[in-house]
Fold:
Amino acid sequence: MYMHAISKGEQQHLNVDPVAGVLQWHDIDFVGDHIRWHRLDVIAPDGKRAAEGQMPVYVYFHGGGWTSGDKASLTKYCASQAAFGLVVVNLNYRMAPHFHLGHVLEDANAALGWVGAHIGEFGGDARRIVLGGDSAGGQISALTAAATFRPELAEHYALNPALPANSLKGLVQHCSIVDFSVFFDKGFVLSLNFIRMLLPHDGNGKGSWKEKHRLREESHYMSPIEWLDSRCPPVFITTSERDFFYSSNMNFIQRLSQHGVPVDSLVYGWKSANTEHTWQQNFRYPESQEVYGRMQSFIRRVTA
Structure:
């Protein structure tokens, strides 16, 4: 499930036995430029709960190492959360290497602008939003959250945050890439090319000490752990010792706790064989079902 294209077979595997009791609207153009990256789906409860009024909104960013992935693989995951009583927004965004992180965050911000303007039409309350994502999608959601109350970060990416900080009630992180310092650890499984490709320009002197220093400086603006402080809303984090970014997530839990941010975490040990990176997408695993139950309790609590 990590950093490769999602085949039709995998999409079917992840979305088998569609969730009943939800309504779905697919491929809404949230920018208006008719390109495929700027499409989102809305999934909402059908029936009585939808008629009862405005529901909390869960906005989800898929993973894929910023280079691949698609919202279609998360339909079952998102529908499962909608059945609980949420209006879920499942979205695509432009990806590297053709686009850099600034473009990705611009798309995330545009999607939130669309949510603020239109989610009420689907029964959602734009004043009660939780952002979530897995892997690179977790980084996008977390950095977008930080930009709502860190003007220097928003300025770095030329963003005018569409989401008011007081509307952001929580953050969900599944195996997220939240601490970029791990990329510089000796023997880390992923190379610094993942940082290079997120920058507008590669620059010269690839592999030199000077270039590595530049990447460290640039990674500061990519790393949510550097920006989410005491103003961050409560966070729900799931990871495992089998996750590539286990240490990144454990560092994040510690840093948030130091800032006094309420953190609810679910961390599996190595013996839990189902918990490879982004296992949460596969609803068949009992560990995924436990994640869903804990996450639903978390969202209910922070949006009350």
Observations:
- The beta strands are 22-29, 39-45, 55-61, 87-91, 124-134, 168-174, 235-240, 263-268.
